[in-house]
Design the sequence.
């Protein structure tokens, strides 16, 4: 199997789907000739032409609005929003229009399209190139949110997202774009939405993570095992809406402890939802309170980004706090 | 609908900034006689039309039938056969009578809300008539008349008002927020202007797959202040999208008059900056609206790009059932525009042509009244949809958390907890 990074895997997924399904079109800012600022759409315009892969004017609401019309009229658009930090001008289109079309038309109309967008910190991008806005999106009825953490999942999940009948925001962890490398199967395969992946088995405590936090959580788990004698289980959620409640509960009921890790600010972050659901459904299995290791409730800082982001040290401290409760 | 708060606004408050509109009242173009001048404008000739210039503005307004129902001197009446002319008239009159009846129902507390279109039927129905059956219409929220013309039934419309068990959208939206995939009528939403960018997508999807469809999107002049309008016109210009942007300039965005909405001489002129065509038409002249829209749609179909049509019309009634226009505009102004009523002048035209008579009109009124009564009586008797519909259609398949919330609701409803 070829070894790829996440950008190459995303590119491979787009190419695979565009070859298979001529309804798939790709557009956004700089995605055409240039192939995207992160090069995720490189070579696609060459292969599929400028009616299926094209640059748009710089207008996020217009890009998403166009996808809404196209998807209701027979196409499967995959627009790119260049950075998740720039998605807000399109929020009305996403929240009030795309996500509600099926519901408000009584199931007559729908918007099957995928917004690809790089998210997250760790690239010295400051506040406007580092945000993790998943909670706003997960909070939106009618919208699916998918976050891969490795190349193989990136390809399989993107293919599933394009084939899905509902609008999906596909959040790509840009810190891992080139850093995460791994084997990616050639050709057509998919990874089912709504299913988590157990990436490390352990008996003492469950770590719930997604996207760029998965490798960080794994590193922390290894060090905690070696140094602190704590055996962690790590679950990569992969799909945040709808998330895999069965996998979460199975793991937490086994270990009796949970630490949730995400980059986004803590208050009303996705960790809050997970913690509440675990307490509703598995209270009697818990030996200690569910803890969260997250970005702080501040704007994303530039100089101190490695202190803002959950890191191995912060995760290990939470694991210890939970074990010593 | 944004109209909900208007009644809380103190009646004495002038919504206009004090520095705006230094023109004396008699200079108000809305109050001027639209008959001032008739001439052939170079721009209008592209639309096969003659124009007249009501207020010395640089662009002429397209018109065919004048305010008294007479064909303007030199105007060419489009070739529409008698049956279709009557069909147009019927749809306009139906729209008016439905609005009157439903607004009464709202006042009686039988439906919660209503959006009327009185005065704008010519703009709404003339434009819809210009489009082909497989062209998508993307409505704002005032275009029920366009839906009726397409064949959207009064029964479906009324069921939607009541949100009952036969409501096609399953009781999920306020009244007047219909949709029909079968008739290629996109779904109505309340936020102003958000539907405009969709038109590019509808149109370009057709273009990219080799279909000759055109998308027509409706919005009011207030929506031209939203970013979505600019974004959409700009993108349409760049891609030569097969789109007709149809602006109903009804002079008022709830309580805010047109001159607080823009400092542009016209709305149509905005097209120029986006590299698309722009044209003003007498929105109360159903034939002129039809003619201009046909030309715009055919341009789009030929691959020549989008047109912004500004239909100059007037909202004779309230923005919605939730506001009272007497709080912000004068009766005199309304009276002037009522004399320009699109239905009345079209009726005169039809009678003059020998296509219509007072007796036929009386019969039609009776027929429409009966149809409306039947639809209301029926819709009112039907109960609500099944409670499960609250949770359906959020996604194509119901995920675990919605299944769980449905069970929770059912448990509560079946429990002894009061």
Sequence:
């Amino acid at each position: 199997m070829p070894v790829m990074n996440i950008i190459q895997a995303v590119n491979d997924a787009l190419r695979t789907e565009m070859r298979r399904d001529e309804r798939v079109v790709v557009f956004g800012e700089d995605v055409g000739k240039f192939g995207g600022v992160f090069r995720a759409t490189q070579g696609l315009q060459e292969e599929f032409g400028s009616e299926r892969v094209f640059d748009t004017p710089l207008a996020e609401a217009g890009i998403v609005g166009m996808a809404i019309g196209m998807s209701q009229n027979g196409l499967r658009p995959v627009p790119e929003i260049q950075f998740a930090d720039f998605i807000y001008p399109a929020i009305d289109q996403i929240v009030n229009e795309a996500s509600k079309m099926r519901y408000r038309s009584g199931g007559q109309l729908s918007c099957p399209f995928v917004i690809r967008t790089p998210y997250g910190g760790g690239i010295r991008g400051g506040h406007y190139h580092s945000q993790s806005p998943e909670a706003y999106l997960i909070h939106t009825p009618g919208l699916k949110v998918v976050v891969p953490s490795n190349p193989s999942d990136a390809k399989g999940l993107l293919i599933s997202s394009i084939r899905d009948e509902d609008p999906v925001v596909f959040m790509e962890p840009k810190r891992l774009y080139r850093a995460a490398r791994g084997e990616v199967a050639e050709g057509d395969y998919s990874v089912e939405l709504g299913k988590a992946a157990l990436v490390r088995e352990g008996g003492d405590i469950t770590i719930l993570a997604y996207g760029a936090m998965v490798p960080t959580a794994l590193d922390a788990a290894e060090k905690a095992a070696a140094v602190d004698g704590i055996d962690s289980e790590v679950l990569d959620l992969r799909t945040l809406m709808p998330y895999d409640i069965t996998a979460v509960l199975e793991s937490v009921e086994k270990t009796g402890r949970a630490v949730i890790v995400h980059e986004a600010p803590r208050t009303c972050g996705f960790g809050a939802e997970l913690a509440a659901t675990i307490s509703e459904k598995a209270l009697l299995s818990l030996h200690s309170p569910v803890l969260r290791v997250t970005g702080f409730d501040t704007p994303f800082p530039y100089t101190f980004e490695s202190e803002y982001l959950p890191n191995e040290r912060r995760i290990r401290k939470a694991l210890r706090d939970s074990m010593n409760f | 609908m944004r109209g909900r708060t208007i009644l809380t606004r103190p009646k004495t408050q002038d919504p206009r900034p004090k520095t705006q509109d230094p023109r004396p009242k008699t200079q108000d173009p809305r109050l001027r006689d639209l008959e001032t001048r008739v001439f052939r404008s170079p721009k209008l000739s592209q639309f096969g039309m003659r124009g007249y210039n009501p207020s010395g503005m640089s662009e002429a307004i397209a018109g065919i039938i004048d305010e008294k129902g007479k064909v303007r001197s030199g105007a060419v009446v489009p070739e529409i056969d008698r049956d279709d002319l009557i069909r147009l008239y019927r749809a306009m009159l139906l729209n008016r009578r439905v609005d009157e009846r439903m607004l009464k129902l709202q006042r009686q507390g039988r439906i919660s809300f209503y959006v009327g279109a009185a005065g704008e039927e010519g703009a709404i129905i003339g434009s819809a008539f210009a489009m082909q059956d497989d062209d998508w219409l993307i409505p704002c929220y005032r275009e029920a008349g366009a839906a009726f013309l397409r064949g959207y039934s009064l029964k479906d419309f009324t069921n939607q008002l009541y949100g009952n068990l036969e409501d096609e959208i399953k009781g999920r939206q306020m009244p007047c927020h219909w949709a029909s995939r079968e008739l290629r009528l996109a779904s109505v939403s309340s936020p102003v202007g958000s539907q405009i960018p969709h038109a590019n997508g509808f149109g370009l999807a057709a273009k990219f797959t080799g279909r000759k469809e055109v998308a027509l999107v409706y919005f009011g002049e207030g929506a031209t202040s939203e970013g979505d309008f600019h974004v959409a016109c700009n993108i349409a210009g760049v891609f030569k999208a097969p789109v007709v942007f149809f602006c109903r300039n009804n002079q008022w965005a709830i309580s805010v008059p047109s001159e607080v909405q823009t400092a542009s001489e016209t709305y149509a002129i905005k097209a120029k900056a986006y590299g698309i065509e722009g044209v003003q038409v007498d929105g109360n002249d159903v034939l002129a609206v039809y003619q201009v829209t046909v030309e715009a749609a055919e341009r789009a179909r030929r691959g020549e790009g989008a047109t912004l049509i500004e239909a100059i019309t007037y909202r004779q009634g309230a923005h919605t059932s939730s506001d009272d226009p007497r709080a912000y505009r004068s009766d005199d102004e309304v009276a002037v525009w009522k004399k320009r009523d699109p239905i009345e002048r079209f009726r005169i035209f039809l009678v003059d042509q020998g296509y219509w008579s007072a007796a036929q009109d009386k019969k039609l009124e009776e027929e429409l009244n009966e149809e409306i009564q039947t639809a209301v009586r029926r819709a009112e008797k039907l109960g609500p949809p099944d409670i499960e519909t609250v949770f359906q259609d959020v996604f194509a398949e119901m995920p675990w958390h919605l299944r769980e919330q449905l069970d929770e609701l059912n448990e509560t409803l079946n429990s002894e907890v009061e």
Notes: Chain A has a mean pLDDT of 98. Chain A has twelve helices and 14 strands. The longest strand of chain A covers residues 258-265.
